[in-house]
C-alpha cells in the first residue's frame, strides 16, 4: 500500500525551467533569420527542416513529447507568427542583457568606488545605498522580462496547437472524402463477394458436379471399371480441396492472422510460378494487424495483376516500416501501361484509402510497373 505522500506530485525545479526557457528563447532568436529567409525564399512551402527545428526547440524547452507537424498548407502562417513572437523575444532579451550589464557595473562601482561608464557616473557617486534603491525596480523588471519570455513560449505552444487543428473547410473536405471512401469500400466488398461467387461457380462447383457424375458412374459400373472410377473420383476430391484452399487464401489467408505479414508474404511468393524477389525489413515492421492486412492485399493484388496483364517475367516486392508508416513497393519487368482505374488497381487504391494511406502507380508504356503504397499504422 502506497503512502499518501507518494501520490503527491513533486514540483519541478524553477531554476531548471528558467534555464530551459532562456536557452530555448535564445535558440528561437537564433532561428529568426533562417525562418525569415525560409518564408521569403519558399513562401508556399517553407523548408521542412525549419519546422522540425521549431518542434525540437519546443520539445526541449518545455520538456514535453515532440509535437506532430501541422498540415503543410498552414506552415507558412505558423512560421510567420513565430517569427513575430521571436522579434518581441529579441527585444526582451536585449533589455534583460542591458539590465544585467547595468547591475554588474553598479555593484562593481559600489564595491570599488569607481565610475559607472554606462551612464557617466563619477567615481564615488554610486554607493551601496544607490544600489539598494535600484534593487526593487530591478527585480520587478526582471520578473516582467522573464514573464514576457514565458508568455511568448506559451503563445508559441498555443499557436502550434491551433495550426495543427483543421479548419471548418478542411473538416468538410475530410467528411466528403470519408463518404467517398466509404462508398468505395462498400463497392469493393460487393466486388469481392462477386469474385468469390465466380470462383466457386467456375471452379469448385464445376468440380463438384464432375465428382457427382463420377460417383454415379462408379455405382453403375461393373467390378472391373469401378476401381478406376473411384480413383479418379478421389483425385477429383483433391482438386476440389485445392480449389477451396485457393478461394480461402484469396479471401483472407489464415497464415496472415496466425503468423504475421512476413510469413504470409513468403507463402505468397512460394505460390507464384514466376520468380518473386522478396525484400522485407522484418525488424522495422511494427504495424498493427489491420495495416499488415492492407499491405498483404496490396502485394497480392499487384502480383496478380503482373501475372495476368503485364506479361512479366520477374517481380520484386519490398516492404519496410518507419515513422508510423508501412510502405509496400511491388515492381515488375512487364510491358507497363497499367490502368489505375482498372478493377485490380482500383481495389488496391480503395484498400489503401480506407486506411488513409497513399498509393502511387508508375507504369509507362514498355514498363516497368511500380506500385507503391504507404499505409499509416495505429499508434
Note the main attributes of this structure:
alpha+beta, Heat Shock Protein 90, 3 domains, 5-stranded mixed β-sheet, rod-shaped, disordered N terminus
SSE layout:
Elements: H1 14-30, H2 32-41, H3 48-62, H4 75-112, H5 128-164, H6 168-220, H7 226-251, H8 254-259, H9 261-271, E1 276-280, H10 289-309, E2 315-322, E3 325-332, H11 343-354, E4 358-362, E5 369-376
Parallel strand pairs: 1-2
Antiparallel strand pairs: 2-3, 3-5, 4-5
Helix pairs in contact: 1-3, 1-4, 1-5, 2-4, 4-5, 6-7, 6-11, 9-10, 10-11
How does this structure look, described?
This protein has 379 residues and is α+β, with helices and mostly antiparallel strands. The protein folds into 3 domains: 10-165, no CATH class; 175-251, no CATH class; 254-376, Histidine kinase-like ATPase, C-terminal domain (Heat Shock Protein 90, 2-Layer Sandwich), CATH 3.30.565.10. The chain has 11 helices and 5 strands; from the N terminus they run H-H-H-H-H-H-H-H-H-E-H-E-E-H-E-E. A 5-stranded mixed beta sheet has the order 1-2-3-5-4, with helices on one face. Strand 4 and strand 5 (369-376) form a beta hairpin. Helix 1 (14-30) runs antiparallel to helix 3 (48-62), helix 1 (14-30) crosses helix 4 and helix 2 (32-41) runs antiparallel to helix 4 (75-112). The radius of gyration is 35 Å and the shape is rod-shaped. Mean pLDDT is 77; it is low at 1-9.
Amino acid at each position: 500500500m502506497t503512502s499518501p505522500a507518494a501520490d503527491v506530485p513533486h514540483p519541478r525545479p524553477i531554476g531548471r525551467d528558467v534555464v530551459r526557457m532562456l536557452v530555448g528563447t535564445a535558440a528561437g532568436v537564433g532561428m529568426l533569420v533562417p525562418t525569415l529567409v525560409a518564408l521569403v525564399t519558399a513562401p508556399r512551402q517553407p523548408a521542412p527542416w525549419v519546422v522540425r527545428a521549431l518542434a525540437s526547440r519546443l520539445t526541449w524547452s518545455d520538456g514535453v513529447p515532440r509535437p506532430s507537424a501541422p498540415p503543410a498548407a498552414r506552415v507558412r502562417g505558423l512560421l510567420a507568427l513565430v517569427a513575430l513572437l521571436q522579434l518581441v523575444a529579441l527585444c526582451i532579451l536585449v533589455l534583460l542583457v542591458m539590465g544585467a550589464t547595468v547591475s554588474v557595473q553598479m555593484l562593481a562601482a559600489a564595491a570599488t568606488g569607481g565610475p559607472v561608464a554606462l551612464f557617466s557616473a563619477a567615481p564615488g557617486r554610486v554607493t551601496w545605498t544607490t544600489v539598494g534603491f535600484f534593487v526593487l525596480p530591478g527585480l520587478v523588471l526582471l520578473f516582467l522580462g522573464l514573464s514576457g519570455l514565458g508568455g511568448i513560449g506559451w503563445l508559441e505552444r498555443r499557436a502550434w496547437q491551433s495550426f495543427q487543428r483543421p479548419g471548418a473547410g478542411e473538416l468538410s473536405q475530410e467528411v466528403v472524402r470519408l463518404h467517398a471512401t466509404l462508398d468505395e469500400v462498400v463497392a469493393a466488398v460487393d466486388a469481392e463477394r462477386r469474385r468469390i461467387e465466380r470462383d466457386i461457380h467456375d471452379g469448385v462447383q464445376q468440380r463438384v458436379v464432375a465428382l457427382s457424375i463420377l460417383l454415379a458412374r462408379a455405382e453403375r459400373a461393373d467390378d472391373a471399371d469401378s476401381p478406376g472410377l473411384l480413383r479418379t473420383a478421389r483425385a477429383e476430391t483433391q482438386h476440389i480441396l485445392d480449389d477451396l484452399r485457393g478461394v480461402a487464401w484469396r479471401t483472407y489467408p489464415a497464415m496472415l492472422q496466425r503468423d504475421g505479414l512476413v510469413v504470409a508474404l513468403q507463402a505468397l511468393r512460394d505460390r507464384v510460378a514466376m520468380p518473386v524477389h522478396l525484400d522485407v525489413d522484418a525488424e522495422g515492421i511494427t504495424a498493427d494487424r489491420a495495416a499488415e492486412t492492407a499491405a498483404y492485399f496490396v502485394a497480392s493484388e499487384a502480383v496478380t495483376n503482373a501475372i495476368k496483364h503485364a506479361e512479366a517475367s520477374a517481380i520484386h516486392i519490398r516492404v519496410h516500416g518507419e515513422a508510423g508508416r508501412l510502405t509496400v513497393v511491388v515492381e515488375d519487368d512487364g510491358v507497363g501501361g497499367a490502368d489505375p482505374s482498372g478493377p485490380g488497381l482500383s481495389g488496391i487504391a480503395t484498400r489503401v484509402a480506407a486506411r488513409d494511406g497513399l498509393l502511387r502507380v508508375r507504369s509507362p508504356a514498355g514498363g516497368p510497373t511500380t506500385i507503391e503504397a504507404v499505409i499509416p499504422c495505429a499508434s
